């Protein structure tokens, strides 16, 4: 009896936490981006969980030094705490995107949509910019969530699976550096974090990753720029 109950528990947890439709379906539908196929040496750096009063300014300074543009998937309540940082991100040419309002690890569709709308309103209120991109917490989603997000007009953005730096675990700056430099290829999307904890390793790693990728000929673009390249490639039949 206890095994049956446990089995039902696992079924409902999995049913609520994961999508039945796979990556191929969502890429073809144009609803989720992981990375793009391109010969152009472009790479998209993304940062989750900010803005943070210490680490976000440090990261912005490094990006500015290398004329690198990035996409920041921000937590709405953090943007309300530090509106000047959300505004700086926008004014320095980076892309602001949504990563929920309170960063809930598990939620239902209606609450998720509410959090997205609340963060959208926060970003627009601070910057006048209307964000179009969303990244789910922990990268977890269901089919019903994707449908609801698409109906609201947002595109979901994940990351290249081999380019999750796991910097939130503080694995050491060398490991972060190696993950990025070994995994980088044209059209990749890299996952970093500028908030949610101690990000000293991320900051130190970026100081070495950016000049190295620059030397390799990479250009650092926002997610929307990456999507535009994807669109042009499809138009040209690439």
Automatic annotation (TrEMBL):
Residue ranges of every copy of the NodB homology domain listed in the record: 41-221
Recorded GO cellular component terms are: membrane
InterPro entries, per the entry: Glyco_hydro/deAcase_b/a-brl (IPR011330), NODB_dom (IPR002509), Polysacc_deacetylase_ArnD (IPR050248)
One matching Pfam family: Polysacc_deac_1
Q: What are the alphabetically sorted keywords of the record?
A: Hydrolase, Metal-binding
Q: Establish whether keyword Secreted is in the entry.
A: no
One GO BP annotation of this record: carbohydrate metabolic process
Q: Can you name one GO molecular function term for this protein?
A: hydrolase activity, acting on carbon-nitrogen (but not peptide) bonds
Protein name from the UniProt record: Oligosaccharide deacetylase
Naturally occurring in which organism (per UniProt): Lysinibacillus xylanilyticus
């Amino acid at each position: 009896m206890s095994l049956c109950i446990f089995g039902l528990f696992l079924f409902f947890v999995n049913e609520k936490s994961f999508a039945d439709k796979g990556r191929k379906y969502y890429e073809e539908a144009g609803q989720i981006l992981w990375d793009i196929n391109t010969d152009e040496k472009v790479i998209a750096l993304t940062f989750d969980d900010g803005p943070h009063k210490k680490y976000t300014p440090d990261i912005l300074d490094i990006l500015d030094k290398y004329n690198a543009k990035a996409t920041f998937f921000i937590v709405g309540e953090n943007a309300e705490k530090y509106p000047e940082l959300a505004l700086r991100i926008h004014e320095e040419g980076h892309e602001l995107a949504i990563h929920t309002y309170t960063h809930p690890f598990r939620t239902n569709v209606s609450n998720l949509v509410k959090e997205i709308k609340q963060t959208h309103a926060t970003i627009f209120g601070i910057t006048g910019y209307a964000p179009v991109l969303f990244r789910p917490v922990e990268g977890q989603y269901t089919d019903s969530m994707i449908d609801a997000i698409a109906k609201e007009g947002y595109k979901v953005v994940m990351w290249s699976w081999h380019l999750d730096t796991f910097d939130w675990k503080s694995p050491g700056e060398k490991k972060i550096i190696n993950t990025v430099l070994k995994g980088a290829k044209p059209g990749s999307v890299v996952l970093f974090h500028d908030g949610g904890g101690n990000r000293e390793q991320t900051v130190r790693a970026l100081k070495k990753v950016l000049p190295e990728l620059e030397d390799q000929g990479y250009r650092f673009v926002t997610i929307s720029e990456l999507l535009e390249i994807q669109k042009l490639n499809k138009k040209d039949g690439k």
